[in-house]
Design a protein that fits this description.
There is one protein chain. The protein is mainly alpha-helical. It has one domain. It is built from ten helices and no strands. Helix 1 runs antiparallel to helix 2, helix 2 crosses helix 5 and helix 3 packs across helix 7. About 30% of the residues are buried. One of its GO terms (biological process) is lipid biosynthetic process. It comes from Chryseobacterium soli. It is found in: Membrane.
Length: about 260
């Protein structure tokens, strides 16, 4: 039992450090070192206060521990035998290990969209999701800034995937890492997508920092995490999204 607790503590510390390091690096680059040169890429003109950052870090660290526990509980107890977790890459091939990551992200986006819509229900929002929306002008530190109940809901995705598709630990950790990087980008407060992205077919598929920032500032619409398709299908995409994105890109790339 003590070994399990020590292992959980170690993993939790690693996850909290990962959160601080990645969020902190993005914050340091955009909000401090290159603040002036990135001014044209700022989505909202208002400044993020130190009080907001402290609140976001507190809630995010708590959420990190909760989400870590949910995964740890599944993979470190006898429950793991009932999942599709596998340890030998040769059981499914390298091709599946690589493919399982985008498949997992596609499933996560669907899960996230509908969970997000539920959290915006008027009887739930002010009791749970409002914690995240206190960051109406989000920063990289707001990525995991959730109410405890929302952290549980968000953290259940890996346990659910483990009961649906075969996942190797490498795929799980890669999924978590890529998911967090995209989450930080969505909450960055700056649009850093390259100029070519706007004319690429990817623009019609993937979310951007502007996309999720509008959700925080308007409180409704743009519910997707990685992709735009659920918002398009359900007609919940903010109609001003492309206009605002183009406006910011024009400021970034005037010529």
């Amino acid at each position: 039992m003590m070994d399990l607790l020590e292992k959980f503590f170690s993993i939790s510390m690693i996850e909290m450090i990962r959160y601080i390091l990645i969020s902190g690096i993005f914050y340091l680059i955009c909000y401090m070192i290159y603040k002036k040169s990135l001014a044209s890429a700022k989505i909202q003109t208002a400044e993020v206060s130190n009080k907001d950052v402290r609140r976001e870090i507190y809630h995010s660290l708590v959420s990190s521990v909760i989400m870590t526990f949910l995964i740890f509980f599944i993979i470190s107890t006898p429950i793991a035998a009932d999942t599709k977790l596998y340890l030998n890459i040769s059981d499914y091939s390298i091709a599946w290990l690589i493919t399982s990551i985008p498949i997992g992200m596609f499933m996560h986006d669907t899960y996230f969209y509908w969970l997000h819509r539920l959290l915006h229900h008027k009887k739930i929002f002010r009791h749970v999701h409002l914690v995240h929306h206190q960051s109406n002008n989000p920063s990289p530190f707001s990525s995991y800034s959730f109410h405890i109940l929302e952290a549980i809901g968000e953290g259940l995705i890996i346990p659910l995937l483990l009961f649906i598709i075969p996942l190797h630990p490498i795929a799980i950790y890669s999924f978590i890492f890529f998911s967090f990087i995209i989450n930080v980008y969505g909450h960055l407060g700056y649009e850093i997508a390259p100029k070519w992205f706007r004319k690429s077919f990817l623009f019609n598929i993937l979310n951007t920092s502007v996309y999720h920032n509008m959700h925080h500032s308007k409180f409704h619409g743009n519910y997707g995490l990685y992709f735009r398709f659920w918002d398009k299908i359900m007609h919940t995409e903010n109609p001003r999204y492309i206009e605002l994105y183009d406006e910011i890109q024009c400021n970034r790339f005037p010529s």
